[in-house]
Amino acid sequence: MLDIQAEINQQERALKKALSTAQTEDALEKVRINYLGRNGHIANLMKSLKNLSVDQKREFGPKLNAFKQAAEQSLAEKKHGIFKSQLRAQHEENRNFDVTAYEPNQKFGSLHIYTHIIEQLSNIFMSMGYDIVDGPELETDYYNFEALNIPADHPARDHHDTFWVSDNLLLRTHTSPVQIRSIENSDLPIAVFAPGRVYRNEALDASHEFNFMQGECLYIDKKISLSNLLATAQAFLQAFFGKDDLKIRVRPGFFPFVEPGLEIDASCPFCSNGCSTCKKTGWIELLGAGLVHPNVLKCSGIDPEIYSGFAFGFGIERLAMIKYGIDDIRLFHSSKIEFLDQF
Questions:
Q1: What are the CA-CA distances from residue 171 to residues 3, 31, 136, 151, 198 (Å)?
Q2: What is the pLDDT of residue 2?
């Protein structure tokens, strides 16, 4: 079996050597593709995680992410160094060059807030032993509704809520269809986190978008109960907000694909006596959750008498808005440099 730690160490040494020999932008781009490209060394190591045990994923997932982030930083620093070297060479060739041709302290591009927040979420779930999965945004009626225990007359099927492409195809309204696809394509037990775009036919305002991001967590194994759900949800929220003392509370909720259904609130991570973020209540509504409905398990060929599971979902923008104090969801899709520069 592949020795992940040994492979990480080897690739770190190889990357360091490759960066030391890359002296041009073209050479550096080849190094970037070899390590950070879709079929690069780091991507292949990420793919190999699916063959590891849960404990091994928990151990090596964060290490791989740390390696990836260090590689991105090293490449950026090398690129800046090559740029400065080229400027010095130009200066030596012509000491009377036009100094206005280069503006000191030029700004460089940065990652979008979506990239930052999804990396944070993925790192948290990978450290807990979860696989990161995705599914099609153009979905079928079966995966978006039927397999999730949503009957034909459910309000979610109304054209006012859903963008239908044909009688059987639609733009997915939630990331829950990825649950069904993961169950069909994976062996039990299953532990997956699915971030992705979803679409709702809604009017735009500061808190509503027709195209936004959701995250979905699913775990299925033998003897899974509400205690597993609540412990996982609390651990996730504590890690995301960096608050070890963060508490949760639950309220009854209804979602067709879970039973019982819960609404999970978190104690406000920014105050102890009430603030504008929690609207002076001390609590913030964050997660929709519950135990996977037996009908969903049956539909996917799983015996609910033997296996059980939990799922919870959340709006990724909502978490980001709370964490970073963003007051308008429309900013995520805007091109306002002063907003994007913050991240």
A1: 41, 37, 9, 18, 7
A2: 58
Tokens read off for 338: 């002063």
Domain ranges of the chain: 4-101, 131-340
- When pLDDT is cut at 50, 70 and 90, the band that residue 155 belongs to is confident
- Checking if the pLDDT of 1 tops 80, the result is no
- CATH number given to 131-340: 3.30.930.10
